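Input chain follows. Return structure tokens only.
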Amino acid sequence: MRKLRYLDLLLSPFDLVRTKRVLQVNPTVPPERREPENIQIIVYEFDKEKTECLNLSQVEDTFRFLDTPANTWINIDGLRKADVEKVCNHFGIHQLISEDILSIGQRPKMDEINGLLFCLMYMLYFNEEQSSVETEQISIILGKNFVISFQEDANRDVFNSLRDKIKLSGSKVRVQGADFLFYSLIDMIVDHFYIVMERLGERIELLEEDILRNASQRSLVKINTLRKEMIVLKRNIAPVREIINGILRSENELIQERTEKYFKDVYDHVIQAYDLSENYRDMMVNLQDLYLNTVNLKLNEVMKVMAIVTCLLAPATVIGGIFGMNFETIPLLHNHWGFFISVGLMLFIPVWMIIVFKRRGWF
């Protein structure tokens, strides 16, 4: 068991599987997505007066919400090619957008085609057990009086508080239009970035304390692991600035003037999140330098102790070597007190050296 533990410790800095997932992304390769057996379709139809939540079993059941006067949020959990293409064809969504929805590892982006606004982003989650950042792709489409969102995982998202607001009478999302719902979805994704960064910040603080107390190879492993997670974090936060800028510059009729100020607020949050991710990256570089400095300091302490021991043993070595020479005439060699004098010198000189070293502050 001990051998396996040390073997795992040596191999863990070279976690090639995680490195491949983080660094090797090629959007030109056709995606090989496993289609789920079942999908979950939840529709919220609401206005100032009422809200209705529907659980549908087939995507065809969503077609009737295309021209309804009320605001509609169609959330589809689970991506199946046939279902995505049916929804896109009925709601007038371009084929390029449907390809982006079904893509894997696509860079966060924003498009405006056929009068519809499309955003592809990633929801970030923090895995407490593995101390890793997990991502889930989400595609959001804004049309006239409707918003369609496509998610990969039906078991988790960051929109629970938004669902509560939709059910709450008099809330802003109920009073305002579909563009405000579109903003609310993006805003909650961005706000959840801070929760993930807070968890990573806690890991960085713990790692810094661990390095200061007991720097070891395991500390280097943790530094290497966290640096990979910082790559994931920055890769998914940085492009969101372009998304919000694109929405503000689009001048699309779907985005009302009263909603633009909310997107400017989201832009400020994205900038702050990006700056914070840059600070975390700098902290990881500093932690690596701190680890190297701590290891070098420990090595210097060991070398200093060894140098002191060598200096203290040098007088005894010299005296013993002199009296061990193969000569017949050596002072004190045949003296009755010669042995005691030589041993006394061997003890006195190192003690005197220790006192001198102490006074000079060498240790």
